[in-house]
Amino acid sequence: MLRVVVSGAAGRMGRTVVAAVCRAGDLELVGAVDRQQVGVDAGTLAGLEPVGVPLGGDLDGVLEWARPDVMVDFTGPSAVAANLHTAISHLVCPVVGTTGLSEPDLAEARRKCAEKRLGCVVAPNFALGAVLMMRLAAICAPLMPQVEVIEFHHDQKVDSPSGTAIKTAEVIAKARAGAGQGLAAGQEILPGARGAAYDGISIHSVRLPGLMAHQEVIFGGLGQTLTIRHDSISRESFVPGILLAVRKVSRLSGVVYGLENILFDSE
Ligand code: NAP
Fold this sequence. Notes:
By secondary structure, the protein is an alpha/beta fold. It has nine helices and eleven strands. The chain has a six-stranded parallel sheet with strand order 2-1-3-4-5-11, with helices on both faces. Strands 7-8-6-9-10 form a five-stranded mixed sheet. The two termini are about 30 Å apart. It binds NADP nicotinamide-adenine-dinucleotide phosphate (NAP). NADP nicotinamide-adenine-dinucleotide phosphate (NAP) binds near residues 8, 14, 123, 124 and 157. NADP nicotinamide-adenine-dinucleotide phosphate (NAP) binds near residues 35, 98, 99 and 126.
């Protein structure tokens, strides 16, 4: 049995992960951490029967006594870097879904994990459909290099643009390198009207109640457009990718960034 601690266990994603870990026959929930609901049973919070794992408020302490193999983190941008560092220092393999991890923080995690030969997975999007969306975008980009990204999320999301949108732009920029493209010329009457820019690619962020996690990648060509759209309509969409990472991470060495690098790793 793989021993798992969930960090951010009182949150929307954390509760989904707790439920998935408790239902998996080969995984054992040995600890749960959050700054909310401390002392409450993690199973109860996740809508299950009590599982005898009360939420702790201190990740360091929980990792010390629970001795897990894997820590899954779905907290927030202000907590994730410290949590990653804490897990690595306990030689616990991190699986990080929290977005907003900075490049320097990621570089530091890469260095420490390589040094300790510890496996780690960081993925801005654990939904299989989102990974396929990026793959398809990479195929289209050299042939239709004029492209913009619109991402849509619920209004509780704290960071913009989404990690998936940034990753998509990275993938497109790499795939169309040399194709030559810039943003369409024109004056912004209202600042920000053309969105954020990543290597000449506009990214637009929509935040509204009623949305979950959605993205459109729109390619424009002569007399035609091509739209790739992905919709996560429930948090369950992330579960297969998260469980895959949990099961694989201890067999990895160093940081793997992006679900595609464990999904397509037989290539
Ligand atoms: P959420 O509902 O706000 O849950 C986050 C939980 O972590 C909250 O209970 C929060 O407490 C807690 N937390 C924050 N900082 C903490 C700290 N320093 N110590 C302990 N607990 C802390 O958010 P969510 O919707 O579950 O999303 C969590 C993260 O996952 C976000 O970054 C989101 O973008 C990302 N996400 C990633 C994927 C993916 O596939 N990779 C999918 C969905 C979401 P407070 O309420 O007090 O802040």
